[in-house]
Amino acid sequence: YLNRMVSSKPKVTMLEETKARILKYQVIDAQIFDHFNASFEQHIDRIGREKVASQVKEFQELRETFENKCFNKNNIIKGPYNSISWEITDYGKNKKCCVYIFTDA
């Protein structure tokens, strides 16, 4: 089975007061994050946001095709810690690329 972590909880927005408190004690972490986030955004701008979005979509489609060949996604098994499992297909059992991401739950 392939395990995937999925969140069943809705995303919670952090209060501004909480953000300020965290930033007060995590100044260096925040500065590192801000630096690399800005660098990342500049890199995306240089490439072009439309091109990056297109590449992300292409990657997601390739991943979906790969997963569908390797795993039977019709039989979903709920596991611990909000994980789900898919059974490996006969095709997947014979392909190293599928077996490498396969985990026995």
Q: Layout of SSEs?
A:
Layout: E1 2-5, H1 16-25, H2 27-47, H3 49-70, E2 71-78, E3 83-88, H4 90-93, H5 96-101
Antiparallel strand pairs: 1-3, 2-3
Keywords:
alpha+beta, 5 helices, 17% strand, extended
Q: How would you describe this protein?
A:
The chain has 5 helices and 3 strands, in the order βαααββαα. The longest helix has 22 residues, at 49-70. It has 105 residues and is an alpha+beta fold. It has a 3-stranded antiparallel β-sheet with strand order 1-3-2.
Q: How are the strands of the biggest sheet laid out side by side?
A: 1-3-2
Rounded radius of gyration (Å): 20 Å
Oligomeric composition of the shown chains? single chain
Give the overall pLDDT as a whole number. 85
Q: Helix proportion of residues, in percent?
A: 55-70%
Summarize the helix and strand pattern as letters. Answer: EHHHEEHH
Unreliable sequence segments = none
Q: Helix- and strand-based class?
A: alpha+beta
End-to-end Cα distance: 6 Å
Strand composition percent: 15-25%
Q: Count of helices?
A: 5
Per the principal axes of the C-alpha atoms, what is the gross shape? extended
Please outline the major beta sheet: 3 strands, antiparallel
